[in-house]
Structures
1.
Amino acid sequence: MSKKLTSRVEDYSKWYNELVVKADLAENSAVRGCMVIKPYGYAIWEKMQAELDKMFKETGHQNAYFPLFVPKSLFEAEEKNAEGFAKECAIVTHYRLQNDPDRAGKLRVDPEAKLEEELIVRPTSEAIIWNTYRGWIQSYRDLPLLINQWANVVRWEMRTRLFLRTAEFLWQEGHTAHETKAEAIAETQQMNQVYATFVENFMAIPVIQGVKTESERFAGAEETYCIEALMQDGKALQAGTSHFLGQNFAKAFDVKFANKEGKQDYVWATSWGVSTRLMGALIMTHSDDHGLVLPPSLAPNQVVIVPIYKSEEQLAEITNVVNGIMSDLRSKGVAVKFDNRTTHRPGAKFAQHELQGVPLRIAIGPKDLENGTVELARRDTLTKDVVGLDNLTETVEGLMTEIQDSLFNKALDFRNNHLTEVNTFDEFKTVLETKTGFVSAHWDGTSETEDKIKELTKATIRCIPLEIKDEEGVCVYSGKPSKHRVLFAKAY
């Protein structure tokens, strides 16, 4: 592969795939459809985890861990959930291998080691968790039960793409139990807001909050809330979902509690989750043809310092000054790295850090020491400036905030410029084919129309926005009455 990335305009999909690999974020593994997340990519995911985990705990949730395997009978207990994931399930049928008598040095499944009950490799954990909750909940005093787990899941995808859609992926899944319907709905809405806050404030990605249509809801949910983001190619990406499950899982697994009147009642449930798909959103929202662009809030290295020198003596002098710079920056909470590798020339280091999206790069050489200055390069704008050492820490602090805000505002402008209201189906199709982005249109509320529009245009209803206003109109496709607009888009 050449060092230069394919242009986004030329081939967006190829650009994305090349960037993930060349920026050292992830690579395909020996297992079909699965990925290896490399240290730099995992460092970004760890920062996402840390911030989300803090937000979960601030809202009263605790972490736990549940088994990877789900007995088939438990998986089948909630019919809609089972049906919804059936085609993506990996199944364990045997528990032992043996030497193959017909092929020397090879193994085969031991036919005598068949499991009494097949095990599903979790595509989601509602079944195993709600079977567990039955033993944890007896009284209203045990509620609310607010649990999250960080885990991996397996969904046997046929068409995969690094981070966006893989057979195995990392995620968190919250599963909560409540005394009343109102409390469960409030929890569902609260966690959707937590996701929106995280994605906007840390990932610098504007999102639209809404609810899914019945056909797009999570299998087994009564209502699915979501956050939808728009990528640079004009396609939408579902960045997070939060589900009001009603009493469906409580009834399926007989999870009851004694209420304050002493009567038995089924608990009310929610589940909510985000995954390593957020990595794909981060890449596709901000990055350019030079490589990754990271918001400072999630960059493993917010600042990298590259020394320019010809002799060991010059490097020693530069290192002495850099140590002071790093101490000052770290005291302000800035993540800084001194790239003093002797195996790479400065130009190669610049190219690597640009490709990997480091927000700020500082170059310092002998002349800088004489002048009391450094060269400061911004990744988001690809601009350079010479600044004094005396106020370098304050300058860097200010730029961290400026870059974070600038990336959000740039993405917001793009999203706003690619949100188009239409009133006819011809307008609808033209926008999707030429301008792309979100299309705001009236819909008659029927799954038949929803399916037909998807068949004809490949666009789906991304959400019914929470801030939607009542507006009498007619469906963009059927011409039937409509009370408000919904957002359509082609999506990942």
2.
Amino acid sequence: MTKNKLSLVEQMSSVNEYEREPVPAHKVKGFKSFLGMVASEHIAGTEFVIGPLFVLHGASAFDVFLGLLVGNILATLSWALVCAPAAVKTRLTIFYQLEKICGAVPVTIYNFVNGLLYCVAAAAMIGVSASAIGLLMNINAPGLTDLYTSDPLWILIIVGIGMVITVVATFGFDRVSRFANIFAPWMPLVFLASGIAMLPTLGVNSMAEFWSVAETKIWTGTPVNGATKYTFWHILIFAWLCNSAMHIGLGDMAIYRYAKKANYGLASGFGMFIGHFMAWVASGILCAVALQDGIANPSPGQIAFMGAGIAGAICVVIAGWTTANPTIYRAGLAVQGLMPKSKRWKVTAVIGAMATLLACFPAIVSKLDQFLGIYALCASPVGAIVLVDIYLFPKVRLRSNVAFETGRTFNGIFMAAWILSIASCYGLYLATKADFYFFMALPGFVLGGLFYLLLSVLLQQKLYPKTSTI
């Protein structure tokens, strides 16, 4: 028994994820590795939360379909043209690349914030999976708008799921990718089948009847329970920027640094159009059925079970796992940057435990759209700063990787640009009385790069002379 435990620890300790060095050429992966991972990550249990949001917030059918089409195209291009090229060029995680730019002190702040936000995202996935298992075990799971739970058995389910997800994530990219590829092929079929199966319940018996029913019974244009109304722009921006921390914020440099070619970023399109289009539409249909049946506050598990029975509930469980796995993996890399001498697997295990604890609070799921918007606002300026440093600085004769080159631990220019961009966008959010943090992610990206460039032109030579201590 002891020998087996030691063997497991030795296996996890032997995994090298190249946290502080470029991924070597012999470790790069083919397109298939990314196809399975991104498809499964974005065909998540949270699709049974996000799809219903468009129904509850009164989006019209036209706005949903056109907004998802345009938004998901833009998201795919953001991975393919922004994130993956930067990852392949440097072969580094965003965390170490950023440390070379801004120094240990600012990157500690960023890694802490990023690790915490990853934990919250993973917690939402765990909570969604738990709702499905709770349904199968006849345990009352929290609904989409609940903030608390009153059933201790639901907490035990959370703990069990969190343990499984954390163990997989501790084994690194190879195991996470393999886990994803096992489940990716069949999950989309469950989403599609469940949506189609429930259409007759709404009165759709032929394709010719679908659009009229969609406009009058599913995406009616009328919000429920006093919710704010979502328009075409809400849908487009959400589809494009709900993962902005991953693409224009460069969080997925942790994944695509293993890509053989930069155009492997196009693999994200499979996740976008299967998970963030088809699955959101299917779960919206199921939510409309639940509302029609008088279930005012359904859980994700209830929605899935309604459409595909036990297979639907199992799909929610697995979809939550395959999304939480890479999320906890990224969180481990972020926090490991705070403690570079610590073993990555130990850090990942602690992160998994934290995510599991957070998942015990259903508010993580009910406020998911707000959380993702704040995450996007914080992360997008950092992505722009890194891109400016990698690509633009060499062309305008400014110094790239200034903290690394000068041996300093604090790049005040980075911190000033990051704080100014977030503060400016928050001020814009208040001034425009916007109801959607995602509207601020794109201005944050532009302002982050612009502030960093202007401040570097004015101050870099004065603060960081050309002499190097390295």
3.
Amino acid sequence: MREKQKQAVFFAILAAALYAINAPISKLLLDKVPTAMMAAFLYLGAGLGLALIEIIQKKTNRAGKEKPLTKKELPYTIGMVVLDIAAPLFLMAGLTMTTAANASLLNNFEIVATSVIALAIFHEAISRRLWIAIGLVTFASMILSFEDISSFSFSIGSVFVLLACICWGFENNCTRMLSEKSPVEIVIIKGFCSGTGSFLIALIVGEKIPGFGYIFGALALGFVAYGLSIFFYIYAQRYLGAAKTSAYYAISPFIGVAVSFVICREAPTPWFLLALFLMILGTYFASKDDGTL
């Protein structure tokens, strides 16, 4: 079991690294791709990519013996899809109003949302260290949510990113209830159902379909940052649980921040640097969580 847990930790960190490129590259694509369309193509890319992998695995007889989803898991599956429609819509909207680095760092609030929901609804135990991490991340998120600290004016973009994190916190716990089932099947359902839902919303609100090159870019980003990331995240949840997996996943925002500074050339503010320090401290306590209450 210890070997499985070590492997699960590796998968959680790998999932974090793959997802880290989402905010900075999405920020660039949003100049040409409308918000809801972007969310749609990200999830459709995940579904298409994993469907292709499944076809290749079956043809080469490399498909693993994973349990399929059943009617028993239907409520969690529906919840997962609905939340996966809402979360990227909030995130893409937030990215149009805040910096990619800000959004990347705020993604750490997903730890807070996932852990509190895991405790309140699914009765997962939360250790003292994880509570300290939750407090530090929450305080840092509050700092990042103010456009101007001196006048206490809220950044609407940051609020949208936090709403995305809350949606993903609920979604992580729904997915945790499915983690014993086939990760490939889960990602395919997430991708096609959530992507189709977002695409229909995009058409209803009158968004225009972008050029093929931008569509391909969004689909490719979705395959890597959503499809492969979710695939490895589900494997990690199988042995670590929702709260613990989200703690290891906390490395993702810091990778995202680094990529944002390189790609988007965004200069950090003093308040951003303070929030970054608190996030690093919070992530340290989360990663050192040993489950002791």
4.
Amino acid sequence: MLPKWFTNWNKENPTNVFGPGIIVGVVGGAVFVAAMIVAWGQPFATASTQTGPRGTGMSIPEFKSALAEGDPTIGTFITSDPIPPQPGDQLARDAYEEAPEILGDLTVANYDRLVEAMRLWTGIPTLFNGEDNYQTTVAMRMIEMTQNLNEGWDGHVNANGQVGVTCATCHRGQPVPSNIWFDNTPLPNTNMAGFAAVQNRASSTSGATSLPSDALSKLLADYGQITVHDLESRVAGSPSDEGYQAIQHTERTYALMNYFANSLGVNCNFCHNSRAFYDTAQVTPQWATASLGIGMVQELNTEYLMPLVDVYPEERLGHLGDAPKAACATCHKGYQQPYNGLNVIKDWPELATTGTPEYE
């Protein structure tokens, strides 16, 4: 038996055979969508990341579906359980002539597991096999750098929980990590107005904008300072004055901020959601963590990476002859935390400290 409304419709609209079907289809579709939302969840549901005191609007909404995706390289991380040393265990320096001094105090068992992991993390199967090559020389310096990052920069590396850093954090199985960078100072663009020496030529460093392309060189390698804020609308002085922060410094800062956002997959509010971010009493925890990160990157570039310029073969250098350097994207790969916050150091006490490893 057909519904009464359907029979009446046919009497009143004998030539309209599509109307009832459309109504039934729309209602049925709505019921189906509602059922799917109940069963599978709201596809556009959001979650808020609190970036400051509640009630101040300092939070960032993100799609739950995006948060659930995660870093696909997490599943490729290789680890193994540490082997607590026992009395009488042979040391690597006594067993292997090629064992680097920095790893010589490890027991043979822990030396073997660490070297095997480093070969897999970096994709270099010949690492520490006795060959006299630049990769082994660089690797020894990188071990020192990794230990320093874990021990000396805990405020940035472990800001949101114990995660640590290993070779895999940057390399992800590749001999040359992705997202390294070189000095990038293009020739002056005489056909464009502005700060022609370093801008008006879109580059990946500046987020494909015409902002200065030397932001990483000036601010993450030369110990440049981001000091462009002033409460006055106009600041006395000229670019020729020493220490004067001209408009070019502001544009360079914008270029660096673009790089930060792309490196972590966030926007400006992630750090700067504050009434007055120039006031350190009002900044967000993310702003403070990022500030530590700037200092950390400056140190690892100037103390560890740039001095290796004479060790690398020519094909590993930039077009200006400089050594490869690191920045935010080298570790983060587009995520707020490398490996989405996976604790990569817990099984590798040899890389966690410059002192004696602590095995549990």
